[in-house]
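Dig into what follows:

_____
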Amino acid sequence: MKTPIARLLARSPFRALEQHAEAACATVEQLGRVVRAYVAGEEFSIAAVSRLEHEADEIKSEIRAHLPSGLLMPVSRSDLLEFLWQQDEIADYSQSTAKILSLLRPELPRELEESLLELNEKMLQTSKVYLQMIGELSDVLETAFAKRQVDDVVQRLAEVNRLEHEADELENHAIELIYQAEEMGDFARYHMLRVVFQMGEVVDHLENAGGRLRIMISR
C-alpha cells in the first residue's frame, strides 16, 4: 500500500513539499515557545521540537524515495531537491537550537534577555511569512506559472528577505551584549553565543529556502 506522501507524489510533488514546509515551520514555532520559557526561567520540554523535526525528516525521506524519475514536472528535479534540502535545514537547526538551550541555563542580564526575545519574535515572524509564501505555490501551479501569481510569491520572498536582514541586526546586537556581559562566565558566554548563532541559522535557512523556491519557479 502506498504511503500518503507516495500517493501525493504520484500526482505532483508540490503538496508534499507544502506538508514538509508546514512541519518545518511548526518546529520553528515550538522552538519559539522553548526560547520564551528559557528566558522566563520556566520549565520546558524539547520533545515537541524533536517530534516535529522527525516528522519533517520523514516527509523529506519519502519525497526523495518516491519522487518518480519519469514524472514530468514544470520545475527542475535538481532545483526541487535543493529546495527540499534547504527547507529541511530549518527544522534541523530548530531542533539543535532547542537541544543547546536544554543543556545550560545561566543567569542572563536583563538587556540580553530582551534581545533574545526580540530575535525570537523576528524568527517566528519570518517563519510565518515563509509559510504564507509556500501556501501561494499552489496558485502558481494552478495558473501555469502566471506572472501575477509568481509575482505574489516573489513579493512574499522580499518580505522574508527584509525580515532576515532585521534578524541579522538583532543577532549582531545580541552578540555584542554577550561579549559585554562581564558578569557571565566564559563558558556561559560561549553557550549563549551558540544559541544566538543557531537561531540566526534558522532564519538564514528560511531565506535560503525562499531563494531556492524563486529559482525553481522562475526557470
In short: The chain has a mean pLDDT of 88. The radius of gyration is 19 Å. The CA atoms of residues 46 and 102 lie 8 Å apart.
